[in-house]
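Supplementary Text 2. Reproducibility record for the structural model of the 335-residue chain.

All settings were left at their defaults, and a single model was retained for analysis rather than an ensemble. We include the record here because the model underlies the residue-level annotations in Supplementary Table 4.
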Amino acid sequence: MSASDSVAAAGPTHSLGGPPREVSAGPPAGRSSGAGGRRRMSRREKRNLKVGLLFISPWIIGVVVFVIYPLVYSFGISLTQYSGMQTPTFIGLQNYISAFLDPLVRTSVGNTVYYMLISVPLGLVVALLLALAMNRNVREVAIYRTLLYLPSLIPMFAMSFIFIVFVNPQFGIVNQFLGLFGMPDTNLLGEPRYAKIVIILMSQLAAGNAALIYLAGLRNIPSTLYEAARIDGAGRRKQFTAITLPLLTPTILFNLITGVSGAMMVFTEAYIMTDGGPDNATLFYMLYLYRNAFSYGQLGFASALAVLLFLFGMLLAGLIYWLSRRFVNYDVAAG
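Retained model, structure tokens:
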């Protein structure tokens, strides 16, 4: 065998005196790459993509029609002076400037933040206590779960009328109960310092929804962790703080987000029970937005308030998700 035949049999190496030559490999078998090295989709993958888009098309249409379009339209209207009857007149950012200068906007923001800071943490605790009661291993637990969840099924407007009767200063059950402790009859909805408290306490009757989500989280915690803790001598309080609470943090985060979202949009209770009074003590942000849109005929200004609420909600949700990295635990999964 000659020297040239030996070199040819050994395969391509490099030329004499030059850099080594790399052997380029083609695309893997069964795959074809297009421009830029991207793999082309096979006919089956294209078909699966079309079928998947077809199945989620109702959701896509719903988001576009009921979320994206109203948001874009509201932003456009917020830049105009518009009453809903005449042609909108472009005024730029004047509605946003007026919103920051309006004292009632500041009052409504303060009332809403006050409601949020008290109602949401209280609701998380009440829902967790209900979930712990629902999680008891007793024969009648199904009845208890139904009774504890039942108040959350009552529509809020109906619950508002019921509470008006409950806190009636003359024959309401609340004043009769307070009278047992020597307290005089008080118009709780007519006092600025009590009206928000009544609405906050009434909102806890809807804690059954969050309690069911907590219950699902409790049932998802492996029982082997509690068995190991009992063997190590941990009591119920230690088991709750070291096992239950850390593993419920994803559920707490979900209920926190939904609670904050609901607190920012509180409307029905104040509209029915107090209409924003007394002395604007229950004038929440959504109620003031509603008044500007449908009572005062200032749709442009109301749209600006809606856009500001959306931006604040997105900012607050992002802040909560950022802070959640410090306390949410995803390490242990159910066995």
